[in-house]
Design a protein that fits this description.
elongated, about 250 residues, 2 domains, single chain, mainly alpha, Helix Hairpins
């Protein structure tokens, strides 16, 4: 289990504490023999001493984003009263594509423990928004809609849970509706994605596209590492596709 402890110790910062840390500690203690949260914290401290730094667990590391995803994913998956295998498979496949098979296997082992623990969405989100920039929080919401739709459709209880999480993360209603529209093929989805009304002028459409392209540009997630850029590119592609659809409809 040495590599497992090293992986978590090296990758985590702020999520080693607070309600997310408690969920990780529960999962590790219950489902990973011979390893505790204190072992992981010790590995983190040892690493900081070796490299001569101490970030006070205040920054968002790649692993912090990963653990935040796992905890929030567990909340959304349970929101409809059952744990659907297709949703679990989606989480696993996404993690394999982002982190590679070995790291994904470790993460999923942890996830199976986290999903058995009741956690407060509000407390978890307060911890996340204190440490994580807005662009990264938008990416979390995008990922959660992907999970919710993994079984073929998004039901009202899942939408409500993600909406509640978005509110706790200080994601405004327009941003929430924009990301939601990326997962629905509705007649006005392109306009919702760009956060404008159908009655918008051509100039307003162009301006909205520039604003949204800047907001969702993958470069905003560079600090989280290359493994998280693919998801950002998906969002960016949705913005571009929405703009192209409106341009074609209007012959702009």
């Amino acid at each position: 289990m040495g590599s497992f402890t090293k992986w978590l110790g090296a990758g985590l910062g702020f999520t080693l504490g607070g309600p997310i840390g408690a969920a990780i500690g529960f999962a590790v203690g219950s489902f990973v023999d011979g390893v505790s949260l204190e072992d992981i914290k010790g590995e983190r401290k040892s690493l900081e001493e070796r490299v001569g730094q101490n970030n006070g667990n205040a920054n968002t590391n790649s692993g912090d984003f990963e653990m935040s995803l796992l905890v929030l994913a567990s909340i959304v998956i349970k929101s409809d009263g059952k744990v659907d295998q297709r949703e679990l498979d989606y989480v696993r496949n996404q993690f394999v594509s982002m982190y590679g098979k070995e790291r994904a296997n470790s993460a999923f082992k942890l996830f199976k423990g986290i999903i058995k623990k009741e956690v407060s969405a509000r407390q978890v989100c307060i911890q996340i928004r204190t440490h994580m920039p807005h662009s990264s929080r938008l990416q979390l919401i995008h990922f959660l809609f992907g999970i919710a739709k993994a079984d073929g459709f998004v039901i009202p209880s899942e939408i409500e849970e993600i909406k509640k999480i978005a509110g706790y993360l200080y994601i405004n209603q327009n941003d929430f509706e924009s990301i939601k529209a990326m997962f629905y093929d509705e007649s006005d989805a392109a306009y919702k994605i760009l956060e404008i009304a159908k009655e918008a002028t051509d100039d307003e459409v162009k301006k909205a596209y520039r604003v949204m392209a800047k907001k969702y540009h993958p470069d905003k997630l560079q600090d989280l590492g290359p493994e998280h850029i693919n998801g950002a590119q998906e969002k960016f592609q949705s913005i571009q596709s929405a703009y192209e659809k409106i341009k074609n409809e209007r012959a702009m």
